[in-house]
Amino acid sequence: MEALFSPTKGANTLPLSKRLKLDTHAAHERVDEAIMALSPFSSLKGYQRFLIVQYQFQRRTAPLYHQQNLGAWLEGLPERCRYDAVISDCQDLALSLNDLKTLSPEPTIDSQAAALGWLYVNEGSNLGAAFLLKYASQLGLSASFGARHLAPSDSGRGLHWRSFTAQLDAISLSDEQTNQALSGAREAFQFVKSLASIALNNQ
Fold it and tell me: pTM score, two decimals?
């Protein structure tokens, strides 16, 4: 995959979370555009398209939250998983999970370091979900119906995110592993973008 970011001077000395943010900036913007193309908060149908994307992404990342090797790096990782919440949201809106499981091929995450990049993307999406939950409430959805996966953690979004990035930055990675993490994050964003395109075309 062609690099989406040309490293600037001094980038290699940044903490991993900062490098991930810089490296995936353009990819993140493209995903935001793809998500907004679904018109997720203009109607329940639009929100269902958005929810389909969320389900697919959470389904792919859910196993990462229960890997012991990753849990050794990131304390409390299983509790961060939002897969059960998004399943409940789909059930609230009468979406068939069996139908959703076949919508797209799932990419391979071929290393533990690459998995860090995927987790970075997923955890980062929760940080920005406050605005999404507010918009979802205008459709009659809430943290207890239809939009559970957008709810903040008990500790609050900011602290939840800072705890994650602090642990991420404390991991000692080789240059090769760092590159794998960056590649994993780019692949995660590309996967979400492809899911959004599929959801838009299938509705």
Answer: 0.91
